Amino acid sequence: MDKESLIVSLKKDGYLKSPLIAEAFRAVDRKDFVPEDVRDSAYENIPLPIGFGQTISQPLTVAFFLELLELKKGEKVLDIGSGSGWLAALMAHLVSDEELKTGHVVSVERIPELKAFAEGNIARYENLRSTVSVVLGDGTSGFPDEAPYDKIVASASAEEVPAAWKEQLKIGGRIVAPVRDSIVVLDKVSKDEFNKKQHFGFNFVPLVKGLTN
Ligand code: SAH
Q1: Which residue of the set 18, 41, 57, 155 is catalytic?
Q2: Rounded distance between C-alpha atoms, residue 6 and residue 19, angstroms
Q3: How far is the CA of 99 from the centre of ligand 1 (A)?
Q4: Which ligand 1 atom lies nearest to the CA of residue 62?
Q5: Which CATH architecture has domain 3-200?
């Protein structure tokens, strides 16, 4: 499959709706975010191994995440689980306002080698590298230094949405996070109140507490 056929199939299956997100898929090429040995499969609608028992997410999941996030230019986003950096780079493309110099993605990864892999992949995109900060850490506690966030997204699944993410979200903001085999959407309506929606039928690597060393 080539890039355009992938986009067409994601549209046909209802995962990809917004023209801006389709444009982000064209601009931020999945081929630049997968290891060389699986590059021929970059446009297959499957997760692919990136080492350390981890995967770059399936394109349909990424499209679904991006649709649910409803990102706008200038927003500040927290991304838990950088992995390959593909989702972080796609989000940077969508929030970056080049004129106003606003829009920021903070991406947290717990495996040092993958933090470096994500950074290296994102650095290929001259226009996006200043929009993304990849940090090493346990994303279970979010990243308080840059809080509050307009949006928070995670690519690794937990038993429940960590309290730190709810605290670090702006009122009016949204969390999109895997909980077991589902995707939970939480809208923060006041300091302690959230509206919840849940979408079933997905697969994720687990959110692991603590660092590797
Ligand atoms: N968004 C990534 C998906 C990577 S898979 C992409 O576009 O490629 C999920 C990632 O979450 C893995 O790299 C894994 O190491 C990381 N992860 C798991 N638990 C974590 C935690 N507690 N803190 C930060 N990263 C974590």
Answers
A1: 57
A2: 14
A3: 31
A4: 7
A5: 3-Layer(aba) Sandwich (3.40)
Residue ranges of the domains in the chain?
Answer: 3-200
The tokens for 126 are 């001259």
Reduced to 3 states (helix: H, G, I; strand: E, B; else coil), residue 165 is helix
Query: Is the peptide bond between 148 and the residue preceding it cis, with omega within 30 degrees of 0?
Result: yes
pLDDT digits (tens, 9 = 90+) for 14-38: 999 999 999 999 999 999 999 999 9
**What does the block give as tokens for 105?**
């993605």
Contact residues for 92 (Cβ-Cβ < 8 A; gap 6+): 103, 105, 122, 125, 128, 131, 132
Cβ-contact 63, 120 below 8 angstroms: no
Q: Cα-flanking dihedrals φ and ψ of residue 87, to 5°? A: -60, -45
pLDDT in tens, 112-124: 999 999 999 999 9
